[in-house]
Fold:
Amino acid sequence: MAKTNQPKTPQTAAQREETRKQSVERRKNADTLRKLYIGLGLVGVLLVGLLAAGLTQELVIKPRTPIASANGAPISSAEFAQRVKFDWLQNSQSLADPQGSSLKVLDQMVDEKLVREQAAQRGLTVSDDEVNERIEQFFGYQRVPPTPAPTFTPDPAFTPGPDPTATPLPTPTPVSLEAYQKEYQDYLKQITEQSGMSEADFRQLVAFDLLRQKLYEDVTKDVPTTEEQVEASHILIRVIEPQPTPTALPADQATPTPDPLATPTPEPRTADQALARAIEVKQRLDAGEDFATLAKEYSEDPGSAAAGGALGWFGRETMVKEFVDAAFALEPGQISGPVKTDFGYHIIKVTAKDPARPSDPYSLQQRQSDAFTTWLDGVRNAAQIERNWTLDKVPPTPGVVTQG
Structure:
């Protein structure tokens, strides 16, 4: 039996309009969702990029960012952190002020760049063998042991008496090669664990120490080794300030018994009284009395009074200005009038003068040090130095281990 086609129910205009609205709405929703997904995807990509950039900044760029530079030679943050930790390891007192000590380390590293540059300009170098020898010296190892002193064989016919100095002095035990190598490796392990410094880094520090010494010698080679000096004696009369009045003790506390061996407190002496005594001494000298005798009687300089006031030879840089000016103005055999300094009043006698006497080791070393410091200050002032130090560049301070 054939199917009969049923007529469709005709849609009303309102139904057709509702269907079009739903279609448009679905398209709008789909478009909105598509844009939302695209936006979320872009945000995700941006976040991943920012995270990657942050990690790159913290793990790669930041450690390599120069914390300072000297004439274009950079000092990386990683190098700086390593050296600060090494400084803390070598000098525990630096931990009391980690920020201040880190800035000192940075200044040292800047100076190192300048010193290396200046040494290179002067053709100064350090060999690997020199570095090896210096490290061996640090640990007490000697490649060539010192030659032992010859043994004294007494004459059999001579019978000595008791020698009060016969107790033998301790002989230092030489460090063997094996002991040196072990101690050196233990030290390298320690600095690697606590500062991240490798053996190559440590050797660079040793090499720099040698290089700086060579540069120091080159810069100071023209510092005069002689100077004008005088040989003189003096008599010092001090100004003595009155001692403070002692605080009264409580009634129930006994007064301490004076120490009979204690040095008695000197009587106060004003500046006028000290000058009057100095004038009196000078008058006695003018009358022909012996300088050394009066110095032993009147001088209040504990370092020279017992020797008749003798000070030996000295240059212009070893005494206070007023004393030096008076002493160098005298000719041998002349005696000054009272010369006032912060120590009191001096009567000075010059016994000899030498315009070019060899300097004593301390004075020469001081002049050389001053000359090198002045030279280095000039190098610093002429250099292009940049510092990018910030507090976050200082490595974390190691904790203090408490021993139980």
The first strand starts at residue 66 and ends at 70. The two ends are 108 Å apart (CA to CA). Strands lie at 66-70, 73-76, 226-237, 310-314, 339-341, 344-358, 385-387. Residues 152-170, 400-404 have pLDDT under 50 and may be disordered.
